[in-house]
Amino acid sequence: MKSPNEKIGSVLSDRFVLIDIVGAGGSGVVYLARDMTLGRKVAIKLLHEGLSNYATFARQFHAEAKAAASLNHPSIVRVFDSGQNDSSPYLVFEFLSGGTLRALLDRDITLDHSQASVVAHDIAAALAYAHQKGYVHRDIKPSNLLFDEDGRIRVADFGIARALAAAAWTEPVGAVVGTARYAAPEQIFGESSNRASDIYSFALVVAESVTGVPPFLADTTYASAMARTHGDFEVPESLGPLRPILREMSRLDPSKRMTASEAEEAFGELSRLLPRHAKVAVSHYVASNSVLDPPTVIAPLISDIDLKSIEVAAPIGQDMAASKGIDEATGQIEQASPVKVDDDRTIHGFEVVEVVAGNRSNRLPYDQDDSFVPYDHAHEEPLLDKEAVDEGEIFEPSIDGDVEGAEGKESRRGRLIGILVALLLVAGGAGAYALTLVNRPPTLYGAPNVVSLTLAQAKSSISRSQLSMGSVSYRSDPSIPSGSVISERPFPGAKLKQHSQISLVVSTGPAPVNVPNVVGASLEGADYTLVTAGLSSNVSTQYSETVPNGFVISQTPSSGTLKIGSVVTIVESKGPQPRTVPNLIGDSQSAADSALSGIGLVASSSTAYSDTVASGQVISQSVAAGNMVARGTTVTFVVSLGPHLVVVPDLTTASLNQAKTTLAGVGLTIGNIYGPNGNVIVIFQNPAAGTSVKFGSSVDVYTIAK
Prior knowledge:
Elements: E1 11-12, E2 16-24, E3 28-35, E4 40-47, H1 55-69, E5 79-85, E6 88-94, H2 101-106, H3 113-132, E7 145-147, E8 153-155, H4 160-166, H5 185-188, H6 195-211, H7 221-227, H8 243-249, H9 260-273, E9 295-297, E10 311-312, E11 339-340, E12 346-347, E13 355-357, H10 406-439, E14 444-446, H11 455-464, E15 468-475, E16 485-489, E17 495-497, E18 501-507, E19 513-514, H12 523-532, E20 536-542, E21 552-556, E22 561-562, E23 567-573, E24 579-580, H13 589-597, E25 602-608, E26 618-621, E27 628-629, E28 634-640, E29 645-647, H14 656-665, E30 669-674, E31 680-686, E32 692-694, E33 698-705
Parallel strand pairs: 15-18, 20-23, 25-28, 30-33
Antiparallel strand pairs: 1-2, 2-3, 3-4, 4-6, 5-6, 7-8, 9-13, 10-11, 11-12, 14-17, 16-18, 19-22, 21-23, 24-27, 26-28, 29-32, 31-33
Helix pairs in contact: 1-4, 3-6, 3-9
């Protein structure tokens, strides 16, 4: 699998050339690219390769991309195309060089009220247009709000959040679709995103753009999210004239929130009332070290001759013209021009003395142009030759008293002239040879490509190329393994003198990330927070009397920094430990109450008569002793009232029927009847009146006829 940097220079669908990395996020990497068909710059979001493993994602992604491409509004980033590169889906959209609102806030730059009202008006207009078309964004946040070079805001990534949710990429099923920091309360509870959800997120973004601090910021993502579920957003006073609008946009009840069209109208009116705003201090795209540019000739080295006698000349065979020099747009010499000396002889010998990165505009990576100023040896004749010598007559001085004949004088003069000419020729040849040595171009060596090699491998490769190691600096890079080369300077392929130094930047691997505090968060929320931070989790469970079931009790480590991909051990609560129900039978009511409340169970009692259990003792219990129940479970027990006794009423002088009724009223019955039956009167009873007997007992009566 190629790293993001290694994909620079790749061609997607035989059309789009990846030039440079301009951003990265949870779903993929954004590249600056060139559309070779239309000849324009575009941005390409190349999504993570793993997304293609989800059967529903590709279909959902391309459907969403097609839908987003139909949105034609000046405040919405235009989507041009989508496609698939091997296993990586990608999205092609317009390139905006002003950076994101997130980048602006990360530079500690905030908007004043006037700027914020204008920016908010444009965002509201984009959402109003999309909502009218039936589209919901689902992930409004500062990193999805892009500026063009003039500082005008655009909304990006329509539909991407829903496609990612279909692949369960960003959150578990049923969790927040979008970014938790800006999610609406209903999204936090796992409900479907809607137009009102966009408006709530929009309100939080506008508030942060002015204050510089995300609303509801808390120690944990879970706490920050849950804070939004307790009431309406208390808009800070520092938001001034924006407060009434933001208050109506951030109601807890989605049905009470302002619509995008209403927000557009409100912000538009406010921007007209506020003083004219200053231009937003947007950043501008600067190519990264990933962009490798052609070499640039810094200066020519001219032979050691009289500079006053040198002028720029056209190449031999052409009319003389001024040298075009170095093109400021490309950093390249447009025309390699020889120089001219007074006697019209041309001298060549320009030399590259330094190689640096050129202007990055309109350059493709590895678009190397090694056309240094050429050396031309066709005119390496000596600067001084025998025709330059004045061959006039030379006279030797005469010596007094020395008389020579005319023939002797002529002979000696000829020898002297011959010697002088020979010396001049030798001197001229030596000078020409020396000049040739001066003008001879040095042997140049190509800088090897050591990017992605280990430092040891890079040193060996540079040494074999007749070059030398320069400085080595270190930088974190999530896409390059620790100890491997991120970039080199001069760039690969540059032509350098022997032993020229090559400086390297070596990766220390991904930068350490801060360990987030997830104690007290739900397990789902903790997993999301750790994954978002680039970490993973190892979960164990234990009972806790204080932390609810499914929430985090503790974590290891609890703070500090870790390498990306490191594991954080978290302990999930299983809730309170189950309780063993005690045996209550035979205990007093107070003892049973204490036994249950002491272990976290709830006591509930009732009473009943018992012929076998003494009054005040427990007869039975609803949950049998030894069973395990959750803390807080109610256990009901029955307390004995002892035997059920009633007092026998006086039945004498009562008729037989009256006696039966009286006994039934207290739970007794007629037993044996001694005497006549029928229309009779009771004259005696057993047991006697006033005697206590068990409920349900019978009373014998003695009767006589009336």
